[in-house]
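WARN retry 2 of 3 for item q-0093 after timeout on previous attempt; input resubmitted unchanged.
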Amino acid sequence: MNQNGKLMSAMMFSGIIVLSGGCTLNKMVKLAKKQETVVTPNPLEVHADQVKFNLAATLPPKMLKKKTTYTANVDYKYADKKQNVGTVVFDAAEFPNAKKEQPKKNQDFTFPYADDMKRGELVMQGVAAKGKKSKTTPEMVLAPGIITTSRLYKEPQLVAYSETGYTTEPEFEPTNVAFFFPQGSAQLQTSETRSKRGKFLDAFIAEKNVTKTVTVTGTHSPEGAERVNSRLSENRAEAIQKYYRNKMRNYNYQNAADSVEFVLKPIIQDWAQLRDTLAATDVLTEEQESQVLAIIDGGGEFEEQEDQLHRLPFYNKLLKQVYPKLRTAQTEILTLTPKKPDSEISVLARQMAEGRADTNNLLNDKEILHAATLTPDLEEKGAIYMAAMKQYGNDSWKPHNDFAAVQLEMAKKANDQTRRQQLADEALNHLQIAVKMQETAEIYNNMAVAYTMKGNREQAMQALNKAAGMTGGEQVTKMINAAKGVNQIKAAQYSEAVATLSQAGDSAVVLYNRGLAQILAGQADAAMSTLTEAASRAGNDGDLYYLMAIAAARSRNESAVMTNLQQAIRNNSDLRARVLEDLEFRAFSNSDTFRNAIR
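OK item q-0093 returned
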């Protein structure tokens, strides 16, 4: 064969190979129409800002030829954009029995969610290849879009103010005066009534303080002359009562004297006062004090113990320098603490906030914090807390925390994002000052709110975890759980969120978020019950009824779906557009009932 003949033969052989390869790929593409693909879940769902799904692909028998591959390219198409998701590769070498058996692949995929992905399509396009040759199948739609129910949470952003420590309830302040008596006597001496203690009580009674009770505790020392008189303690208490009543008559208490309750407490044969007196005096050495305590703590009859004390070599010290302190009538007077009316507190707080001359100390630390609670105006609240910081901010974390709470409240109402961030930053500055003074659940709760506003979920969760580990009031604990539960929803920890939100109180927002967590945890019936309770507190919340419609849809309760959609749109007509594109309602969207419900 000449050279030209050889060349012609080679070209014919190559053409046969090309035709053979092309024929193979054409057959594969044709058979690809029979491939089976199952996407779970379908439609797709977003959880924790990620879209995760499983793709099970099955090829028909005889489709995968020897030395070929079939690659399924998976993409998500939305808003004129395309997100590459991944590939499923079938290599003929992995499936030697592909002529008789169906090649199968099961693969998990994940891609990040973007805000405009809700409406879109998960698509797949196959590529059959042999050597360097390939042929593409038509694009196949696998899933219609993404369900975004997990993103319907409501940020509670509940700020925690400190406990003011102020109460409008009556409070009584104790005043204590002690009178001493001679050994074995209940006669109140003139030297006692003219002493500093006597003059103090005289002046106190003269002021006509509003007095609730006067408790007089009569005592005695344990030596013989005292202990043999069983009424000595009682008589001493009665002597002080008589003296007090005479003074009240002198100062013309009139009917007010009848409202004062006198309580007499005689103490007989008791070692507690001796023990307390020894702890407060240095008359005895440590060794001597130990000997006395060993006797009175050793048990036995009172007289026997006193006899043991009498035999101590330093008993004379006890008798002359310790025992006289035990022959008393201790008087505790409970008087009503005078309080300013709220109207006066508000006026004085305003003066302090305005920085008028000589306005320092018009209110104490508790009163000025209370003053801030008397106004709903956030600007005025903030000014009062500023005055509190100026007056008491070096000694207390409370004004800094509460001022930060006001800034966060204002940030929630701010329409401008830049202004909202500025307020959150200012709040954080004061919270950092407060936390250096004292770490509290209130401070860390507010830090979590500020970090949430700034979009820093990790730091928000860290702050919440710190807050949760501290002892706070009941309301603060509920606030912390309300925020923590929402963060658990964001992290796709739905069962945990249900448990946390169950400990967050029963406000409408908390119940809404708990109902959402229950839906996402597969508890649609429980969610409907929770959301119904929420509706009793916020009957005009369209979002709430919308969520109830989703719970009903997941329970296949068509009647409840329509009723709640109607109520949702009635309260918020903007929800109509959301309903039309929400794949939660795809099973009902073609019915006339559905169309009438959202009309």
